[in-house]
Amino acid sequence: MRKNFFLILAIICIxxxxxxxxxxxxxxxxxxxxxxxxxxxxxxxxxxQPQNQPKEKIIEEDQYREIxxxxxxxxxxxxxxxxxxxxxxGLDEYGHIKTVENAHEIVWYAxxxxxxxxIILAAHKDYRGEIGAFYDSDRWEKGEELIIEYENxxxxxxxxxxxxxxxxxxxxxxxxxxxxxxxxVTVMTCYGxxxxxxxxxxxxxxxxxxxx
Length: 212
Prior knowledge:
By secondary structure, this protein is an alpha+beta fold.
């Protein structure tokens, strides 16, 4: 009788464990499907480059950017209470956009000598226990406005059109190209699971295009 009792108990434990694994797999699958719905990773990166556009219009837009574009001074995202000046940065020794040791600072990749099509802004998700400037950027909604103010006094309004999430080594080149594609602002920060000794496993890219 005692042996039968332990046998039944063992069977129950195995069943409960199997059920737990099944639920975990369902949860993981659900999260993956949710991420697929939130992000536009299936949007072909080459589509960042406008196709079949008349040459005259491209020249006209390039001339416009040469007039409007100057050093980025400030970024404002009204709904998410972002309103602050920008720190210009270059690349680090590994060819990555430099980061700053400050949770609240926003940096701009201040590239020179090219006609800029893609204004890249970056900030921490969090840093040394403090919430970063773009902490909740994975929850930003399409259609929200972003305003860029320039040192020459000009101001432009953009709206969120696409959201990407990639591991750094898997990010399509065109997402970070500054001199190709439509005129846009790319806001990037860390995302996903935090891996001790390495940092966050992914990056999130919110792409804002010029508001009509």
